[in-house]
Amino acid sequence: MLKVGVLGAGHLGKIHLRLLNESKKYELVGFYDADNSNGEKVSTEFGYTYFNNLDDLMDAVDVVDIVTPTLSHYDCAKKAIEKRKHIFIEKPITHTLEEANALLSLEAEYGVKGQVGHVERFNPAFTSVKHAIKDPMFIEAHRLAEFNPRGTDVPVVLDLMIHDIDAILSVVNSEVIQVNASGVSVISQSPDIANARIEFANGCVANLTASRISLKNMRKSRFFQKDAYISVDFLEKKVEVVKMKDAPKAPGDFDMILQNAEGIKKQIYFENPAIETNNAILDELESFADAINNNSTPVVSLKQGTQALKVALQIIAAFNPSKI
Prior knowledge:
alpha/beta; Rossmann fold; Dihydrodipicolinate Reductase, domain 2; nine-stranded mixed sheet; six-stranded parallel sheet; 15 strands; 29% strand; Gfo/Idh/MocA_Oxidoreductases; NAD(P)-bd_dom_sf; nucleotide binding
């Protein structure tokens, strides 16, 4: 079992602590929190070992799980890598692209592995159809959330939209060539609602909307490709797959047939992939253990986390300052 320590015992940090404590692939050594009173409180309430010295915890583990505020990601990760510890780091990977690129260099220099916590990659709805998403040419994503003060220290792009950016980059095998975006601050000092249009070199276009001031929650993406439409509901964990194929010469009474202006007939049919219930956070943490043990590439590598951050920052840079 890999010895692991958690940095940060906030809302998400406590979830990580619980799951790592339950995991059969890790041995939870303890955790560190910069707020000593919170660290003592969490230790007393849940029984996890609290380290009030960061170096002591890092020296005692094989893997460092970084669940601290984004601004501290780089410093924590740099220290861990220089101690030759593998790192799991929550999204976004870092606060700046320069910091992310520096971590990539450190990862290679010290020969450790890193994974970024883009948890939607492990959403069972997405994993059930990811193999069927091939060369999408138009993608539409909506990620809407009711207002929650937690996370409003960063723009909604880094708080919410980055989930969809990463998922889209994982299925579009092409370079981003153009980004247009608009963002508006309503309650926070940073944008609370944003829309972005991402154009890829292969002609694919992705239209993303994210809001943290919605009256309802929604996390849905739709992928359009030749002869197929795929809808993924990340929130309800449901999928809808509609495909087309050449119509049979003698269609059945209940076959759905479409004919275009050129007289070509297509049959519409539906697929219902099996969706297995899972805990996506536990899956991403344990997949990282597998990558370490098998010396394989993590599902969401530091490079991929850096690519998602790069596009997110391009979107933020495209906002009209007078509208924010």
